[in-house]
């Protein structure tokens, strides 16, 4: 695969007939590239829940398309019955994963569209939903490009960048968020060296980030999560770049489990720690990170999905939080599509409180 192919990867789209969502099954990468065409209520839910589609922006757009597909299956002709069915589907999809706010915001955005078309014939509502979902997808692509562009001022040729989890084109759109600047820098002829945390337990860093970077011809080295400290100490890392799933009003940031540990290490070694996200990932209803719900996942992800089976005795207790919150005091800057926010985040993030667009 080339740089161009990676940054234009077709990770999530509405099928040509509009009756299904087509995704790359990220749970099978990098061993198998398999596209899934999903239209059943349970399979759409399952795709998010099992991380076949994953990454905060990608699950938001996927959910918007899924809402269109399910609404298209309705036989209801009255607006009231149609809206009841839509609300039930919305609540069901929203319950598939709790931490990435993009999922809830995308569904609220679809809800706004349905309510704005109250009383119109169902086919007209469906048309409005489809064009809204396509617009959301397009906006996400543009935001990724702007975020990546804004990150360019944070790097110089030859830098070593540590990454955690995957915030590239697969989990977002176009260039990506946390990885976007690396792809843009490559496009512009710069040489960066990425060190990629494998990201236990589901190995998004090993399976997806190194796959994307290597396919695009970006120098990357895979490390185990517990090796981040030594590469920092050895002077290989100039900055840490991560994406995120939800940012509280004070800048506390939820991202893949292990991110806050990386931020603590970066502070210890005096390395800047940057968070990249579209402004839609900021959730002003969460005052601090304590208000962010952390997803707890199945223990089998720790005990079974690795190279030795079983990896622990079946009766061993497991604690499997999928995300953690990085304290805003450890974050050097939050890079959004509209610019770079720094402390005090309560003030710098406040510019996003009155979005020009409908919420998404
Ligand atoms: C893809 S952008 C940022 C985040 O969504 C990403 O860093 C992350 O933590 C994703 O977690 P995942 O559990 O793989 O959906």
Task: Describe the 3D structure.
It is an enzyme of class 5 (isomerase). It comes from Sporobacter termitidis DSM 10068. Catalyzes the interconversion of methylthioribose-1-phosphate (MTR-1-P) into methylthioribulose-1-phosphate (MTRu-1-P). Helix 3 runs parallel beside helix 5. The strands form three sheets. The chain has a seven-stranded mixed sheet. A four-stranded mixed sheet has the order 11-8-9-12, covered by helices on one side. A three-stranded antiparallel sheet has the order 1-2-3. With 360 residues, the chain is α/β, with parallel strands linked by helices. The radius of gyration is 20 Å and the shape is globular. The protein has twelve helices and 14 strands. The longest helix is centred in the middle third of the chain and has 30 residues. The protein folds into two domains: 143 residues, Up-down Bundle (Four Helix Bundle (Hemerythrin (Met), subunit A)); 205 residues, Rossmann fold (3-Layer(aba) Sandwich). The structure holds 5-S-methyl-1-O-phosphono-5-thio-D-ribulose (MRU).
Give the SSE map.
Blueprint: H1 3-7, E1 12-14, E2 21-24, E3 35-38, H2 41-49, H3 56-72, H4 79-94, H5 101-116, H6 122-151, E4 160-163, H7 180-187, E5 193-197, H8 204-215, E6 219-223, H9 228-233, E7 239-242, E8 246-248, E9 253-256, H10 259-269, E10 273-276, E11 282-283, H11 300-303, E12 323-326, E13 333-336, E14 339-341, H12 345-348
Parallel strand pairs: 4-5, 4-7, 5-6, 7-10, 8-11, 10-13
Antiparallel strand pairs: 1-2, 2-3, 8-9, 9-12, 13-14
The chain binds 5-S-methyl-1-O-phosphono-5-thio-D-ribulose (MRU).
């Amino acid at each position: 695969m080339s740089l161009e192919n990676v940054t234009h990867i077709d990770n999530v789209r509405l099928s040509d007939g509009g009756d299904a969502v087509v995704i790359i099954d990220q749970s099978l990468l990098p061993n198998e590239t398999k596209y899934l065409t999903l239209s059943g209520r349970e399979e759409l839910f399952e795709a998010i829940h099992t991380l076949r589609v994953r990454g905060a922006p990608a699950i938001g757009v996927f959910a918007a398309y899924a809402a269109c597909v399910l609404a298209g299956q309705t036989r209801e002709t009255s607006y009231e019955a149609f809206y009841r069915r839509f609300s039930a589907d919305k609540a069901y999809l929203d319950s598939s994963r709790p931490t990435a706010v993009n999922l809830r915001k995308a569904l609220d955005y679809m809800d706004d569209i349905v309510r704005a078309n109250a009383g119109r014939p169902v086919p007209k509502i469906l048309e409005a939903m489809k064009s809204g979902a396509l617009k959301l997808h397009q906006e996400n692509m543009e935001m990724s490009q702007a975020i990546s562009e804004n990150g360019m001022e944070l790097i110089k040729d030859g830098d070593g960048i540590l990454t955690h989890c995957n915030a590239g084109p697969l989990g977002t759109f176009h260039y990506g968020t946390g990885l976007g600047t690396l792809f843009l820098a490559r496009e512009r002829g710069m040489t960066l060296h990425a060190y990629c945390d494998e990201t236990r337990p589901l190995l998004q860093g090993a399976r997806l980030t190194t796959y994307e970077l290597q396919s695009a011809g970006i120098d990357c080295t895979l490390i185990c999560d517990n090796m981040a400290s030594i590469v920092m100490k050895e002077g290989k890392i100039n900055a840490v770049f991560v994406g995120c799933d939800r940012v509280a009003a004070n800048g506390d940031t939820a991202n893949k489990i292990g991110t806050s540990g990386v931020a603590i290490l970066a502070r210890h070694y005096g390395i800047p720690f940057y968070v990249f996200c579209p402004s839609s990932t900021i959730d002003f209803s969460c005052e601090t990170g304590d208000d962010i719900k952390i997803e707890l996942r199945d223990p089998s992800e720790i005990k079974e999905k690795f190279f030795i089976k079983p990896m622990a005795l079946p009766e061993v207790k497991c604690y499997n939080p999928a995300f953690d919150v990085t304290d805003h005091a450890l974050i050097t800057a939050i890079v959004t599509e509209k610019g770079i926010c720094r402390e005090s985040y309560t003030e710098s993030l406040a510019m996003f409180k009155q979005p020009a667009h409908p919420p998404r």
